[in-house]
């Protein structure tokens, strides 16, 4: 159930091949970004290709109309935008990365992005040493690749800052703009209105971009979770959510996370009465559904029947004895200070880069 005290926890896992954002209904909290190595996805037109390609041709340069921007910074950014990240795949063909030390006074917009790039890629600015195995290489390079991608996305967005979103048809630029919005979310500076607008523009350019349709849904979920006066009985809102869900399902019915989101929509974000009905249907369809009993326990807890909640959760744990989340919930609701917020339901909704283009 969403309460005024609840917020949305955001964890953005950035991969060259895939990424995901998790949402969890719980007390206000932000988790720092975690970076994983690249993964190969099944999509032939995957975002991985868009992420890797150079942002500038060899004869093109980053320019600025701001007089205080140094030529050293412009040259450094040009080097970054010309990089082909496919050359960083194992075994790497790049010998070293552009050195950020040449840009000593970057604009405020780039200070944090450049700092993260310098911290994560510093070891690769002198000489890239090839480790003996692909796994070791990916372990060393994963944070650098992610920091580099965010930095490049920031440069691309800055270069085209005067262009109207409605007039942008360049898909790599739109992808960069979307990724930059996710990086802002990690820092707690959310602008879901802009994120949704970018994703909708991507769908105008190519209506088959599943990840964009999912990004719109994510933006709406965040809005819901952060609205103080959220009205669960707003029928128009839930009708709109169902329409957006249907659009995403039409593009990719194989995404199991949409089933979780559909359940959230049907229960109107954990309304206890609706959740109880949903749980009973899940159990009627499968008497061994640990998820069904978990949801039933949640509903009873929110309805104030703690003993019934204990019994339902105990059954869920019996059916799924290795589920650590169930055990954590059991411990939480048995604490002396347990309150109505102690029993939570996680909603996982992610953007997987390999699904952005299908």
Outline the structure in words.
- Helix 5 (171-186) runs antiparallel to helix 6 (192-205).
- By secondary structure, this protein is α+β, with helices and mostly antiparallel strands.
- The radius of gyration is 23 Å and the shape is elongated.
- It has helices at 47-52, 71-82, 108-121, 134-159, 171-186, 192-205, 210-226, 235-251, 256-266, 272-285, 290-303, 306-319, 324-333; strands spanning 6-14, 20-27, 34-35, 346-348.
- It is 52% helix and 6% strand.
- A 4-stranded mixed beta sheet has the order 3-1-2-4.
- The relative contact order is 0.14.
- Residues 1-46 have low confidence and may be disordered.
- The chain has a domain at 52-159.
- It is built from 13 helices and 4 strands.
Features:
alpha+beta, 6% strand, elongated, disordered N terminus
Distance between the termini: 34 Å
Can you tell me the overall shape? Answer: elongated
Rg (CA only):
23 Å
- Proportion in helices: 40-55%
Topology:
Elements lengths: L5 E9 L5 E8 L6 E2 L11 H6 L18 H12 L25 H14 L12 H26 L11 H16 L5 H14 L4 H17 L8 H17 L4 H11 L5 H14 L4 H14 L2 H14 L4 H10 L12 E3 L10
Structure in a nutshell:
The chain is of the alpha+beta class.
């Amino acid at each position: 159930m969403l309460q005024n005290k609840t917020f949305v926890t955001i964890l953005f896992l950035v991969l060259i091949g895939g990424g995901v954002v998790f949402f969890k209904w719980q007390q206000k909290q932000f988790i720092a970004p975690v970076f994983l190595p690249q993964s190969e996805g099944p999509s032939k037109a995957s975002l991985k290709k868009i992420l890797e390609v150079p942002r500038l041709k060899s004869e093109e340069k980053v320019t600025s109309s701001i007089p205080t921007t140094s030529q050293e910074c412009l040259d450094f950014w040009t080097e970054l935008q010309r990089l082909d990240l496919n050359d960083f795949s194992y075994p790497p063909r790049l010998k070293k990365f552009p050195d950020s030390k040449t840009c000593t006074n970057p604009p405020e917009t780039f200070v944090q992005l450049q700092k993260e790039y310098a911290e994560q890629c510093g070891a690769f600015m002198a000489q890239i040493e090839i480790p003996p195995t692909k796994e070791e290489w990916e372990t060393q390079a994963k944070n650098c690749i992610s920091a580099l991608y965010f930095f490049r996305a920031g440069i691309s967005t800055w270069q085209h800052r005067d262009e109207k979103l409605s007039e942008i048809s360049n898909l790599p630029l739109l992808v960069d703009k979307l990724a930059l919005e996710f990086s802002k979310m990690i820092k707690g500076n959310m602008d879901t209105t802009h994120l949704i607008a970018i994703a909708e523009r991507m769908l105008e350019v190519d209506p088959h971009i599943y990840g964009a349709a999912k990004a719109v849904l994510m933006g709406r979920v965040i809005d819901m979770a952060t609205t103080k006066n959220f009205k669960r009985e707003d029928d128009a809102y839930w009708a709109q959510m169902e329409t957006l869900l249907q659009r995403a399902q039409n593009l990719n019915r194989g995404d199991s996370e949409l089933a979780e989101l559909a359940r959230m929509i049907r229960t109107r974000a954990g309304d206890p009465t609706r959740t109880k009905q949903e749980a009973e249907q899940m159990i009627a369809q499968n008497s061994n559904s640990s998820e069904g009993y978990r949801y039933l326990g949640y509903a009873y807890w929110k309805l104030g029947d703690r003993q019934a909640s204990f019994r339902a959760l105990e059954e869920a744990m019996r059916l799924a004895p290795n589920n650590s989340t169930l055990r954590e919930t059991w411990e939480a609701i048995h604490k002396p200070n347990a309150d109505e917020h102690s029993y939570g339901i996680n909603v996982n909704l992610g953007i997987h880069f390999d699904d952005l283009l299908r």
